[in-house]
Amino acid sequence: MTNAPTPLRIDFVADVVCPWCAIGLASLSQALARLDGVVQAELHFEPFELNPQLGPEGQDIFEHLQQKYGMSRAQFAESQEAIRQRGAALGFTFDMGARSRIYNTFDAHRLVRWAETAGHQPELERALFRAYFSEGKNISDHEVLAGVAESVSLPGAQARAILASNEYAAVVREAERFWTGNGIQGVPAVIVDRKHLISGGQPVEVFEQALRQIAAETH
């Protein structure tokens, strides 16, 4: 007689222009694949804005990181290469040549919230990471966002209508306040069953071990 997999709610708090969030999701996904039959994950994607002040034109990435962290050109190049290598090891492509600007992500978060109601949230989150990091697209642009939605079988006309309105704006703001109010100051933040926190773009083994332990304690 085999035990049924342990159901775990996993809230993945992230921003779609955060490279460590893309790495964290790829890593978490591989950990969950290893835990097939042990854990039954209910995955929810939650909004966090790294740069809520950015206008629609965005900002040059190096200029942005230089202002934020005092990063030199050499440090920037080293950081970008480290991120590219971590992604490649997990099967995720960072095309640093295609991606030169960082953008406001509030509208992307509105679409991700809508996608949850339509049952396509994980697919849309992954597609947004690919659109931005692998293809260098402007994911604050409404046509780009609608196209990404269509690529995961969401209706483009509905996506455009949502983006043209304020739909899901209040619910995204409320979710952002909830997570920052509960101490989330950096992303990715992986919260399991609303009580266990795993911070950062951890290696697959770290996610696997943590989730295995939580499942054993929960079972």
Structural class: alpha+beta
Major sheet, described briefly? 4 strands, mixed
Q: List low-confidence stretches.
A: none
Helical residues, percent: 40-55%
Strand order of the largest sheet: 2-1-5-6
Radius of gyration: 17 Å
- Summarize the helix and strand pattern as letters: EHEEHHEHHHHHEEH
Strand tally? 6
Helical element count?
9
What would the principal axes of the Cα set say about the shape?
globular
Average pLDDT score: 95
Which percent band covers the strand fraction?
A: 5-15%
Terminal-residue CA separation: 16 Å
How would you portray this structure in words?
- This protein has nine helices and six strands.
- It has 219 residues and is α+β, with helices and mostly antiparallel strands.
- A four-stranded mixed sheet has the order 2-1-5-6. A two-stranded antiparallel sheet has the order 3-4.
- Helix 1 (19-34) links the parallel strand 1 and strand 2 (39-47).
- Helix 1 (19-34) crosses helix 9 (204-218) and helix 6 (142-151) runs antiparallel to helix 7 (156-164).
- The chain is globular, with a radius of gyration of 17 Å.
